[in-house]
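Hey forum,

I'm writing up a methods section and want to include a predicted complex as supplementary material. The small molecule is flavin-adenine dinucleotide. I've pasted the protein sequence and the SMILES. Can someone with a working setup run it? I'll credit the forum in the acknowledgements.
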Amino acid sequence: MHDFDVIIVGGGPAGAVCARELLHQGVNAAILDKADFPRLKLCAGWITPEVFKDLKCSVNDYPHGIICIKKIYFHISGIKLPLKTRQYSIRRVEFDDWLLKKSRAQVFKQRVKKIEKEKNQFIVDEKFRAKFIVGAGGTNCPVARNLFKNRADKFINRQIVALEKEFKTDYSVKECHLWFFKNRLPGYSWFVPKAGGYLNIGIGGKLDKLNRKNISINEHWNSFINRLKETGKIPDTKIRPKGYIYSLKNKSLQCHKDNAFIIGDALGLATLDMGEGIGPAVKSGILAAKAIISGKGYNPDTISKFSVPSMCMAGLKF
Ligand SMILES: Cc1cc2nc3c(=O)[nH]c(=O)nc-3n(C[C@H](O)[C@H](O)[C@H](O)COP(=O)(O)OP(=O)(O)OC[C@H]3O[C@@H](n4cnc5c(N)ncnc54)[C@H](O)[C@@H]3O)c2cc1C
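Reply by user p_vandermeer:
Happy to help. Structure tokens for the complex are below, copy them as they are.
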């Protein structure tokens, strides 16, 4: 049996940052993740300046490719609106690996299945034991499933279904575009340039509305790709996307019970307007670590529900 003060299930941004905060304060925390890092994570990889502020580091400390996006083109009902801002684009395969290494946590490769409580300890898969457990395993987090039951109904109206593809292009792409509500999509599609000639394209929409409108996300994806090809934004080759479902911010979900905490996507913290989840994952990881250290409350409701106001503010500060 491996004994720790805190076991964190999931080594994405939420789990890695939580571990870093705990270890920094001398708390013996370990991470269990089913994947070998660096691992692929479906994501446009857009992060705000606030993420670096929360990580207490400068953009210049980031060792991998990063692009500073100074203007984003919002397309709404055929109108193109440039927004002056300051945001960043990273590749998640690099960013998450960097955060995990930065945490200095002991990481075990473990696909967590069973979590039991014995006296005051959590036992994970009969191999790991700790007084505290943190669920940072994303949408299907086993901690949330095992210890926080009856959550499914709370996700209704909050789930986003997304398709995306990240690939290397031959030409240098500079502009970042977002298309809202195109062809009655209940969400938006994106075109985000990355360092090293990579490009991330994707589409995301509210699952319940898509079901009601009877148009699948795949149909939206096909017309999106055709538009990008017709306008010469991407080459005319076959592009197979990957899909994922995650949840928007949901105040009514239980986030803390005894010594168990839920953070990041496992809790459903992405912003209501843009589906931004990396910043909220980082913030919730810090808040949970502080709650464990101080013994005081954990309140992720303090994390903002919206992204657009801070995107506009970032442009004013620039
Ligand atoms: C297509 C798409 C585009 C997005 N674009 C953006 C964007 O541009 N900007 C933004 O801010 N947000 C974006 N998001 C949201 C963002 O990706 C998530 O909110 C963010 O990754 C949440 O971080 P996390 O640490 O909570 O979870 P994750 O990053 O999902 O990490 C969870 C970890 O848990 C591990 N895990 C899962 N199950 C188990 C198990 N049983 N046992 C052990 N380990 C397990 C996984 O391997 C994974 O490493 C996007 C999401 C999607 C789907």
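Some notes you might quote in the supplement: The chain has a mean pLDDT of 92. The domain at 2-66+91-156+246-305 is CATH 3.50.50.60 (FAD/NAD(P)-binding domain).
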